Amino acid sequence: MSAAGSKVKIRVRDLTVSYAATVIQRGVSFDVKEGSIFAVMGASGSGKSTILRAMTGLLRPTAGSVCYGDLDYWTSSDTQREQIGRDFGVLFQGGALWSSMSAAENVALPLQMFTKLAVPSIDALVQVKLSLVGLQSGRDDMPSHLSGGMRQRVGLARALALDPQILFLDEPSAGLDPTSARRFDDLIRDIRDGFGATIVMVSHELPSLFDICDDGVFLDAGKKTAIAHGAPRDLRDHCSDPAVLAFMTRAIPIVPTPAPPGDVHGPH
Amino acid sequence: MTDSPRGHGWVAQVRDRDLLLVLSQNWAELEFDPAELAPLQAMLQHGSWNSVRFEASQMARLGSPLLAFLDSIRGMALRLNIRFDETGLPDTAKKLMQLIAIAPPETGVPRRPANFIERIGQSVIYAYGELSAGTGLVGQVILRSGAALRGQARLRRVDVLASLMEAGSGALPVVALVNVLVGGIVAFVGAVELRRFGADIYVANLIGVAEVREMAPIMTAIVMSGRTGSAYAAQIATMQGTEELDALQVIGIPVDDYLILPRVTALSLMMPLLNLYAAALGIFGGFCVAISMLNLSPAVFVTQMEDAVTIPEVLFGIVKSFAFGAWVAISSCRIGLRAGRSTNDVGHAATTASVHGIVGVIMIDAIFAGCANALGI
After folding, report:
1. Does A268 score more than 80 pLDDT?
2. Which chain B residue has the Cα nearest residue A100?
3. ipTM beyond 0.85?
């Protein structure tokens, strides 16, 4: 059952993102409701992660706004942006762990930097976060000695370190085996239910999308804009757009065959 | 009546043989302090308790501090054989507590730090391993060089050319700058001392011999170790981290052929040429200082230089440069190959390659100096 409320937590309006002169997506608009798990969907290269970068303050959009409450992130002052960013937790693709620190140190660093907690309190919280993501061993291992799945878990524990109100997940279950991916999905839902966090996730893992997401937006790589809005399950069952249907049903889109030379008028 | 143990967001109440922990406030905004649990622990240790229960109707919101609190209480109850009854907790807290598995007790003997003797032993074993691996790599490079000359090595000509350009023309500006300045400095120091004995004219001999025989080879090797050697180590270490080396091995391309050979060939061939270039520029730097400070005529400087610098001196410098180039390339590649797979290891490999390269160059130079003395060169 959805735990999403009716209050809008993030409002994205007419967002255009580009790398240099290359426009990746233009005019993207959507609302993320508080307490929801929102999916940013689309094929590879459609700009899902780029939209996420614009939402998390890593890439300035060419146009449009990303509002948290009443504040537009990109027109806010540095202090306001820092304040908004304090509510974020971000899980990057592959975990993006700091390689010179152990798993436990990766999780402890945000607590050391942004709280005044004593060492025993930080240790206890790190223990809880790592246990929460199912990391029972390897807490003192360096990231290079952890498997991909373990790195992903530590990345999530780090993203949860400061109990963020908004959690951004970039391909959270990519590279995980089906059982681990399912457990990861359950964990994401439990975190939303337990902590009341709003979760925005970029993914093209269909089981995850259908299983846990309440709402979403579908980005099209060809048209370079959002072509559908709604829960992944609803899009699968009710959307008539061929690109969305092909994605949701893993069908291979039919590309019209070009007419042979000399047959420009077609059959009569 | 004694005060009940309490802390931020909780208070303990006794119910017969049960301990009831009443939770309140917004735990998302509270800070968990393990020290607050000491009175509670003492109470549990000194009583005969049936269970620890919870009452959470007053609690506004849960957060990580609550989970840390509950985890600590659960650990205490487990150790004291008291039932941990979580029925009074909100469903979401119960779910999250199920995810936080009970930490298994510590097993095994804790690792003891090595003592002094053990550390010496470990260092010797490590040094022996490195020496074996390094010698093996030198042998492999020599063998594969023969194969490459016969056209049997798995390497691309374009990679060799790129390496030659990177190690050769790419290094010209920095080698020039360093050697002109070093030549000037040698001339300046020499001029100050020789002038006191009226031997100004011999500054040309000093510059010529010092540059051709020692300064140009060594300064060029040091520059190339810092510039190219560390780059080799960083490149190969990065490839290690991104599994590019594994990909090469899996499809049957020997790393020695594809990565090491072009680099060793490039630096070994380019270093003698850079040495000649460096010596010429070093002499030019010295010439400028000598002409301007000692009022030597250019013709006299050149005549003195021709007398002092002989062909064997030049050849000696070239042979040394070849050895320096081979050492810097092989040691750097070896350091890159044995690097770990993290980004941190890349930086470490680059630094280590630079240090090993420079120290090795000085040591090889000392060996050459000893040999030259024995042979009367």
Report:
1. no
2. B344
3. no
| Residue B245 sits in the same domain as residue B371 | yes
Interface test with B, best of A119, A128, A163 (most B CBs within 10 A): A128
Tokens representing B210? 């010092």
Highest mean pLDDT: which range of A27-41, B14-28, B42-56, B90-104: A27-41
Q: Is residue B105 part of a domain?
A: no
HSE of A179, CA atoms in CB hemisphere, 13 A: 0
- What per-residue string of b and e applies to B172-190 under the rule 16 or more CB within 10 Å gives b? eeebbebbbebbbebbeeb
State the amino acid at position B104 in one-letter form: P
Min distance B56 CA to chain A CA atoms (Å): 14
A121/B343 touch (CB, cutoff 8 Å), yes or no: no
Q: Is the minimum CB–CB distance between B65 and chain A shorter than 8 Å?
A: yes
Chain B CB contacts of A195 under 8 Å are 28, 62-64
Interface contact B34-A136, CB threshold 8 A: no
Distance of residue B53 Cα from the nearest chain A Cα, in angstroms? 20
A139-177 residue pLDDT tens = 889 888 888 888 888 999 999 999 899 999 998 887 778
Report the chain A residue with the minimal C-alpha distance to residue B35: A120
Coil vs helix vs strand at B278: helix
Residue from the list B63, B72, B343 with its beta carbon closest to the beta carbon of A163? B63
Q: Does B100 touch chain A (CB under 8 A)?
A: yes
Residues of chain A contacting B100 with CB distance shorter than 8 Å? 128, 131-132
- pTM over 0.80? The answer is no
Whether the pLDDT of residue B57 is over 60: the answer is: yes
- Quote the number of domains for chain B: 2
Residue A193 touches partner B, C-beta closer than 8 Å: yes
CB contact under 8 A, B99 and A187: yes
Domains of chain A: 1-87+167-191+199-249 (3.40.50.300), 98-163 (no CATH)
Q: Are residues B199 and B339 in the same domain?
A: yes
Contact B345 A144 (CB under 8 A): yes
B104 touches chain A (CB under 8 A): yes
Q: Is residue B352 part of a domain?
A: yes
Residue B92 sits in a domain of what CATH number?
Answer: 3.30.750.24
